[in-house]
Amino acid sequence: WSRRAVPYFLLRRWWRVLRSSLRCFFLAIRLRRFLIT
User: Fold this and answer.
1) Rounded distance, CA 31 to CA 35, Å?
2) Residue at 7 is within a domain
3) Cα–Cα distance for residue pair 30/1, rounded to 1 Å
4) Cα(37)–Cα(29) distance, integer angstroms
5) Residue 7 vs residue 17, higher pLDDT
């Protein structure tokens, strides 16, 4: 393990989690907007 590789893998893993949570967030907003109207 090099010191430059560790933040890269952490960033990749966190980016995947962030992207999935953002997708659920946008889906919830779209669903709420659809149910309200």
Assistant:
1) 6
2) no
3) 42
4) 12
5) 17
